[in-house]
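Provenance and format

Records in this collection were gathered into a single text stream. Each protein contributes a sequence line and a token line. The two records reproduced below are adjacent in the stream.
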Amino acid sequence: MTTHDNTTTTGRTTEYVPEHAPRLDWAKLAPDVYKAMIKLDAAARKGLDPVILELVKIRASQLNHCAFCLDMHTKDAIAAGESVERIIQLGAWEESKHFYTQKEVAALELTEAVTVLTDGFVPDEVYEQAAKHFEEAELAQLIAAITVINAWNRFGVTCRLVAGHYRAGQYK
């Protein structure tokens, strides 16, 4: 197990908790599933605004507590030019909607509804709001992208994939 650099920006040394080991390297043990997920991910992203796609991936990963995916998608978003401020605000986007476009807010609302499913369904008003901002084909792709990141999150969380080692664009 490795640890991260223990020197803070103030020059103080801090002893961080050691990194945990992953439970399972599922991608190596189920390579056909992994390859199918890669193809599904590529198909789901077609025609979607890359900014909205990363915001959706980050928000779903926050909700699902997938540290590995948060590490990946925040780094990819920053590398693509997304602001750190907008990424930070995603955890409280409902209180900081003014950081996002109406289309992005609709995508975030849909992401939460699809990811959490607390009432067992996606509310009509959430779906209708998304349908106002996305053409039908684009909405279908958005739903697919939300579904795919949720699947990735479940692999990451279940297998305890380790955050902190991803480099922007590493898997593209």
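Adjacent record:
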Amino acid sequence: MKPSHSRAAGEPTDPDVDLHVPVQRPGTWRSQVSVVAVVALGGAIGASARYGASLLWPTADGAFPWTTLGVNAVGCAVIGVFMVVISDVWAAHRLVRPFLGTGVLGGFTTFSTYAVDIQRLVDADRARAGLAYLGLTLLVALAAVWSAAWATRRIVAWRQG
């Protein structure tokens, strides 16, 4: 009987996966239904929150997209906090990370809208603003996740100490 996780001849094997460890074996599609469901539910919640932010703070055509920048910064900061809490502090249920990390925060942060915003700025003859937004978003997102993770680790250490 041929295993369901066989690979085609010549297909590369991931060197980080040990198929002798049951958790790392590819599962059936049925085992993934709950993960897909919580990611979809979380994504709907996160995307709805992002949409709400765009309604509260709309960006005029050709204007600098401060709302998208803010949403991405907040989302990245929450990701930084969440990853420290879930990996260092709290033994969470297996569906918490896909629900909150991939679903809610993946739906809330919006790097596709970021790309569209850059295109809109360029189309409005604001290429410099588009370039500034391109770099600023990357810097702000990385700084937000890093500083939030750093601060969370400090707070956790202080509370445990």
